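Troubleshooting: if your tokenizer reports a length mismatch, compare your output against this known-good record of 361 residues.
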Amino acid sequence: MLAPISCNGYSIYFNEDGYEKLKHYIVERNPSRIFILTDENTNEHCIPVFMGKMPADFTAEIIEIEAGEPHKTIATCSQVWQVLSELGADRKSLLINLGGGVVTDLGGFVASTFMRGIDFVNVPTSLLAMVDASVGGKTGVDLGPLKNQVGVINVPGILIADTSMLMTLPANQMRSGLAEMLKHGLIQDRNYWAAFRDLSALDMNDLDVLIRDSIMIKNNIVMQDPREAGLRKSLNFGHTLGHAIESYFLQAPEKDTLLHGEAIAIGMILETWLSAKTRQFPEDTLEEITRIILSYFPKVTIEKEDIAPIISYLKYDKKNAHGHINFLLLKDIGAPVIDVRVPDDLLIRSFSYYNGQPQTV
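Known-good structure output:
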């Protein structure tokens, strides 16, 4: 059994242990009503798994939203707030967010703001949500194509990481979560990063341990800097350009929408190259990182005319201050440098580096 992880104000439990803790949590809190927020995918594939692990007399109202990043909006929140109100939710109600990062981000924000705050529990069902989105207390929604512009920091009562839920995921969704695990290794732990050089020999037990280790890395950073005053910014490696790419592909009608991890994978390659050019990051390690990331993530076509609008999205990044775009870069694996400014000409050249790489998937 995987040991639980203590966080700021809550705990993360794994697999069957999580459901036992949830049963006790419900008895102790004695909520007036229980609601489960899902999307159409998790309602179909994960609700039966979840309900099968709860007591026979467990009852809850299910609220379903549309799946996908385009629906992570205030408009969706308004619909959920309205449904909660119509179904008689009060300040003693409990909202269980059962889904991927969109559901846990949006559900946490809905719970934190409905009647000025009700209890919520996160049950992430995607790898991305388990190792990143549902950990650390960040909740919120997008503002048009701009990622996570509206939200609050608030923690769930408990979090259950049930890795059996991952069996319901398509391959691209598993890869999306893998990007955040790769990031955790790059910013914090060379040995952890080394585990991803070849995953072919790993079984499910090995994956469980890697997932727990990834959560531990993020949680240790969040525990030291819960409000992102300094160290927590290291979790944004790959995200400054990655979010800009994700936003651009989300709104460009001729582009296929990228999953979060797919965009972050590109961002990590670009920002590792920038690290090599501005922070003397080792060139041989840059080549290794690029090769490993591209062994998991298909190359994405980024045309020359895409680069300027992608860069224009950088002005919305939440790490910016006083009109300056701030990057999180690396001196080496496990040695992040916060608040780095990068000239525009290097940004443009970083895309040339990415586009010049051979496809290895």
